[in-house]
# Entry
Amino acid sequence: MDLKEIQALIKFVAKSGAQEVSLETEDFKINIKTGPDASEQPTIIQAVAPQQMPAVAAPAPVEAAPAPTAPAPAEADENANYITINSPMIGTFYRTPSPDQDAFVKVGDSIKPGDVLCIVEAMKLFNEIESEISGKIVKILADDQTPIEYDQPLFLVDPS
# Structure
């Protein structure tokens, strides 16, 4: 893995919002950490194979979006009747097909299986996320044009 590939990996991890990524092969080990406590510790790249490579400090990690907090008990009970639609991948969440167009769905919209809810961009590929259920959008849990994690809640849907 050359320096350009390592830098691209660091940029991708920072943009995706992941807190930590480790990659280990026979020749090297890379551990990339992002978030508020990552600024205290630089990203470390170590050579593990017989040919010793010097440790390289990567550019300062970008702070990730704060982790969502657990809902209050009253809010959790209120949301118990709703179905959560989660992200099938990491990437960047988009509510609109393009900046000058309306959102795919808004709070209060009725949806059915096959309706496009949003787009998740991952590695320059724009993936349309379709509904697998019928219902009414109650809440949109992710902000437009922000990094999202795998299995992150995106929408709350009232199935009734």
